[in-house]
Write a structure and sequence with these properties.
This protein is α+β, with helices and mostly antiparallel strands and 269 residues long. It has 13 helices and five strands. It has two domains: 9-73, 434 Repressor (Amino-terminal Domain), CATH 1.10.260; 88-268, Beta-Lactamase (2-Layer Sandwich), CATH 3.30.450. 29% of the residues are buried. Helices cover 49% and strands 11% of the residues. The chain is elongated and about 70 Å long. Strands 2-1-5-4-3 form a five-stranded antiparallel beta sheet, sandwiched between helices.
C-alpha cells in the first residue's frame, strides 16, 4: 500500500486497518487500546504518541519500511534505518547469513530481498544455476543487469522455466506465494514488479487439485540435460528485525525430495 506525502496519519491508519480487514474493535483489541481511542485517532480528535504509532504498526503487522512513513505522517522521525549489507552495523547479520549458507552446503541455499533479487548464495546454489543456460544473459536481455532475480528466473520462458518438469503443478503454487507476499507488503512498487513477472509467465492453469496421494510439500522437479532433481524449500527470516534491510531479507534453503537428488548434490560437493 502506498502512502504519498500528502496523506496524514489518520488516512494511513484507516487504509492499513481496512487493508488488513480489521474493524476498529479488532484493531483496538490487537493494540490493547479502547475502540473509542482508535475511532478518535482516525477522525483526528486525538493525536497519537510515538509509542501509539508503533503499537498500531505492530498490531497491523506493517512492514518496517512502511512504519517509517506511518511515523512521519504522524509528525515523528523515522525509527528504522535501511542499511547496506556491507555496512559495519550489519556485520552480525552478514556473518549469520554467511554461516547459514555455508552450513547448508552441499545443498543449495540463497538469500533474497523483498523483490526476490539474489543477494547471496552458497556453492551448491552456484552449481544448480550453472546447470542451466546462462541466467545472467537472460537478465541482461530483460534489462535487469544489476542482480539476478529469482522470481523472474523461475517464471520467464528463457529462464529456469523450461527445466521445470512439473510446471503445471509448481507454477500456480509459486504464483500464489508471490501474490500473497506482494499483498501483505502493501507496497505498490513490489506489486507492480510481480505483476510484470506474472504477465511474462503467461496463462497458468491453476486447476491442479489436491489428491489423496499429495505429498507433505510440493516438490520442484527439474530436468536439466541428463540431470533430474526434485527439491522443496524452507523460508527463514530474522525474528526481531530493527532495520528495514534485515526485515526484508529471506533465506531460502532447498532440500532433496528423493535419495537421487541428495546423492547428486553430495557427489558434486
Amino acid at each position: 500500500m502506498g502512502a504519498d506525502a500528502s496523506q496524514n496519519f489518520r488516512e494511513i491508519c484507516r487504509q492499513w486497518r481496512q487493508y488488513r480487514k480489521l474493524s476498529q474493535l479488532d484493531l483496538a483489541l490487537e493494540a490493547n487500546v479502547s475502540q473509542r481511542h482508535v475511532s478518535w485517532l482516525e477522525t483526528g480528535r486525538s493525536q497519537p504518541s510515538r509509542e501509539m504509532v508503533v503499537r498500531l504498526s505492530e498490531a497491523m503487522d506493517i512492514p518496517l519500511r512502511k512504519r517509517n512513513s506511518f511515523l512521519q505522517a504522524a509528525g515523528y522521525a523515522a525509527a528504522y534505518t535501511e542499511s547496506q549489507l556491507d555496512d559495519p552495523s550489519m556485520k552480525p547479520v552478514l556473518k549469520a547469513l554467511t554461516q547459514v549458507l555455508k552450513h547448508h552446503d552441499p545443498l543449495p541455499a540463497i538469500v533474497v530481498d523483498r523483490f526476490w533479487n539474489m543477494k547471496m548464495k552458497n556453492k551448491a546454489a552456484d552449481l544448480l544455476l550453472s546447470l542451466s543456460s546462462n541466467p545472467e544473459a537472460m537478465m541482461i536481455k530483460r534489462g535487469k543487469q544489476k542482480e539476478l532475480n529469482v522470481a523472474l528466473l523461475t517464471l520467464h520462458p528463457e529462464g529456469f522455466r523450461p527445466y521445470i518438469k512439473n510446471w503445471d503443478q509448481a507454477a500456480p503454487a509459486f504464483i500464489r506465494r508471490l501474490k500473497s507476499e506482494s499483498i501483505a507488503s502493501g507496497d505498490p512498487e513490489l506489486q507492480a514488479q510481480f505483476a510484470e513477472f506474472l504477465q511474462l509467465a503467461g496463462p497458468v492453469d491453476d486447476s491442479y487439485a489436491a489428491t489423496e496421494s499429495l505429498l507433505p510439500v510440493l516438490p520442484l522437479e527439474l530436468k536439466i540435460g541428463d540431470v533430474e532433481l526434485s527439491v522443496f524449500s524452507a523460508i527463514s527470516t530474522f525474528g526481531t528485525p530493527q532495520d528495514v534491510t534485515t526485515d526484508e531479507l529471506r533465506i531460502e534453503a532447498f532440500y532433496p525430495s528423493d535419495d537421487k537428488t541428495e546423492a547428486f548434490f553430495r557427489s558434486m560437493a
